[in-house]
Design goal:
The structure is a homodimer. By secondary structure, chain A is α/β, with parallel strands linked by helices. Chain A is built from 13 helices and 14 strands. A 7-stranded parallel beta sheet of chain A has the order 5-2-1-9-10-13-14, sandwiched between helices.
Chain lengths: ~325, ~325
Amino acid sequence: MTAPRVILLCGGVGGAKLALGLDRLLSPGDLTIIVNTGDDFDHLGLRICPDLDTVLYTLAGVVHPEQGWGRADETFVMLDELVRRGGPAWFRVGDRDLALHLQRSLRWRRGDRLTEITADLASQFAVRSTILPMTDSVVATRLETAEGVLDFQDYFVRRRCAPVVRQIHYDGASSASMSTELLQALASPRLERIIIAPSNPLLSIAPILSIPGMLDRLRWRGVPIVAVAPLIGGRAIKGPTAKLMQELGLRGGVVGVHEFYAKQYPDVIDAMLIDEADVREASRSGCLVASTNTLMQTMDDRLRVAQSVLELSVKGGRP
Amino acid sequence: MTAPRVILLCGGVGGAKLALGLDRLLSPGDLTIIVNTGDDFDHLGLRICPDLDTVLYTLAGVVHPEQGWGRADETFVMLDELVRRGGPAWFRVGDRDLALHLQRSLRWRRGDRLTEITADLASQFAVRSTILPMTDSVVATRLETAEGVLDFQDYFVRRRCAPVVRQIHYDGASSASMSTELLQALASPRLERIIIAPSNPLLSIAPILSIPGMLDRLRWRGVPIVAVAPLIGGRAIKGPTAKLMQELGLRGGVVGVHEFYAKQYPDVIDAMLIDEADVREASRSGCLVASTNTLMQTMDDRLRVAQSVLELSVKGGRP
C-alpha cells in the first residue's frame, strides 16, 4: 500500500522532468505520480501509453536524453522493416521500447489492470516512486479541429499539432473510475502536498481532473495544491500549450494558465510556481506565485524546480 | 485464383528448401505450397506461424542462410531488453521478424483469415509462388510425452525434442476446414503433380493430412503423389524425425517412412524420392522409388532435388 507524502499530477516529457527531480529529492515511496492516460492508444495491435512510458523511462534513467521520451541508445530495426513492407512510419516505435509494449499489451488483453501492469513494469526498472495511471478505465482525448475530429496521437504525432483546435473531449472520462491504489494514495495520512506538473493543462492535466471524484478528493485533502506553470515568457518549452490556449480563446501566458485552472477548477490551485521571466506579468493578475528558473535542462535544474515547488509557502493555504 | 501445376505439402526448414528449388524451376503461379500450421502458437501476445514464416522467408530470399529459419542479418534488441526485464528467452524473436509478427497478429485478432494475411505478406515479399496455410481454423499439434502433454513449441524449442513421445494429437483438426483458396488449388485443372516435402511426416505432414477432406481430395485428383524422404542413411538432416519414429514404434529409415505413409494413408503415396545412400535398403522393401543426392545444402542441390521429384516417373501411377 502506498502512503505518499507528495502526489504529482503529470503528463509526458515536461512533467516527467519534474517527477525525476522530486523522485531524487524524496525518499523511496514518498512520491506518487498520477499520470495522464488520455493519450493511450492502440497501434500495430499494441496498447501504447506514451505518458506512462515517458515517466517510467525518465525515473528509470533510460530515457532518451535529448528528446525526453523513448529510450536512450534505441534502434529501429523492426520499424524500418515494417515500413519497408508498407507499414506505418508515423509513430516511431523503437526495438527496446517494443519489449515494454509487448509485455503490457499481452497483459492488457488478458484483462490485467493498467495499474498492476504499470506497477510491475516500474518494479522491473527499479523505480523508487509509485507510478499510477489516472484510471484503469479507457479514456481517450479527442480533438475537434478545423479538419474534423482527431484522435490524440493523430493530432499530436501524425499532424504535429498543426490543425486548429476548437474543442477537446475526454471520451470515456464520465464513466471512468479511480483504482483502489489511486484512492489509497489520495487518502494517504502522510500526504503533505499535491503538485501539478508543468504539463499541458488541457491535454495532460485536464484529463486527470476529468475522472469522476478526482477533483473533490484533491480539494478535500486540505493539503496545498501547487501548480508549476508550463510556460516561460509566454511560450511552451515543448508542445502546443500556447497555441492551443490561443485557439480555445484562453488568455495567454502564466496568467492565462492560472486563470484556466482557477475558472475551470475553482478552489483547487493554491499557488503557482512560475519562471522568473514571468514575475512581472503574474504580479498584475493577483495570483499567488513563487518564482525560480523553471527551465529544466540539467539534473540540477530538475532538483531546483522540485525543491522550489516543495518549499513554496502557501500563504492563506489550507489548514 | 490459383491454378497450380504443382502442389507441395510442406513443413519448415527442410521442406522450404525443396519449395525454393521448385519455386525457381517453375513459372510464377505454377506452384502452390500447402503449409503446416499445427506449430502455430501465441507468444508475447503475438500469433506466430513458424512454418509459414520459414517458407515465406526462404522463397523471399531473406532467410537466415545457416539456420534455415528466421531472418538473415537479424538483430535481437527487443528480445535482449525483454529478457533483461524478466521476460522469456526461449523463443528467439528477432527485430525484423517482429515486423511480420506484429502485422499478422493485428489482422489475425481483427478476424482476418490466415490465408488472406499470408497472401498479403507473400505479396509484400514479392514471392512468385502461392503459399497457403493448411487451414484457417486453429489446429495445434500436441505431444503426449513421458513428462506429460506438451504444446508443440514447448516440446520442439523449449525442450529441444528431448522428452520421449508416446502419442501425437492434432487438436482442432477434426473440426478444421479447408479454405476456398485451398479447395481451388486442389481442383486446379492444370495440376500435374502433388509433392510431399522432406518434412517430418508426423509433425509437419500428418497435421496437413489430418484436415477433413484433404486426403480424399488428394487421392481423387488422379495425379502422381510423390514424397521426398526426410531421412538420409536413416538419419534426419535436422529435427527429431528418426528419434520420434523410434519412440512411436515405427520402423526406421526410408522404409519406415514409406511404411508410415502407406499404412496411415493407404493409396496416397505413389512413389518416393530417396537419397542414393538408401537405395539398397529401399530395394528390399518393394516401395517404388527413385534416388538422387537429396541433401540440400546449396541452391544447386535444391534445384536438383526439385528437378528429380518433378521428373520422377511413376510407373503404375494414376491415369
